[in-house]
Amino acid sequence: MAPIEISDSMRRAFADALTLLFPIECAGCGLHDVALCDLCRAELLPEPIVQETASGMRVCSGLAFAGVSARIVRAVKEEGKTATLVRALAPALRHAVDDICALSAGTSPDDVVIVPIPTSRAAMRRRGFRVVEMIGKCAGLAPRRILQLTRATVDQRELGRDERQRNVSDSMRASTAAGTRVLLIDDVVTSGATLDEGARAIRAAGGIPLGAATVAATPKWNEGEHAKRVGR
Known about the structure:
Elements: H1 8-21, H2 38-42, E1 49-52, E2 58-64, H3 67-79, H4 85-103, E3 113-116, H5 121-127, H6 131-138, E4 147-149, H7 161-168, E5 172-174, E6 181-189, H8 193-204, E7 208-217, H9 219-223, E8 228-229
Parallel strand pairs: 2-7, 3-6, 6-7
Antiparallel strand pairs: 1-2, 1-8, 4-5
Helix pairs in contact: 4-6
Domain Phosphoribosyltransferase: 166-219
Keywords: Glycosyltransferase, Transferase
Family: Belongs to the ComF/GntX family.
């Protein structure tokens, strides 16, 4: 049977019909008929922020979690809009990974084990996917699930710094060979408490946490007294 040829006008009509049935809009600004417009995509160009957690671990974030970048991260995490947006966020994470490796005596990402902060069971049930692992794979990384949660924690969005530290204290364990050099990754850093807990678990298992990389850093992280700007 010969293939059916579809004219350009028919394709456009079909696309228009789909748009009517399933309207899309830019996750960054609401512009119609596009998942991510060019102006909002430009807002995702990496502008690395390098700081330290309360324990002194270096963390590099590709973006500030504000405005367009915050809306896009939320669209991925809370609305499941992954097809276009995950790819758009990947360069920010990759840039952060490359920068933190360069700060660690010129280490290459190929010379370390990339370890994501684990997704809670509740978040996995709600979303159906692991956000930072998906972004990491789009960034050309090979995340390994070395960290596991040992107990449930509460949602940290409304918690202060000290409350966050208590909330995640001793909540993770790691399965890694002694001497393994590890780089932690996560989507957003707010206080650094979760990353510090991941690093503690890595050290307890004999691993060596070199630092952490995240897609974005919140204003709480950028302005907090516990975080320090680090010269590059």
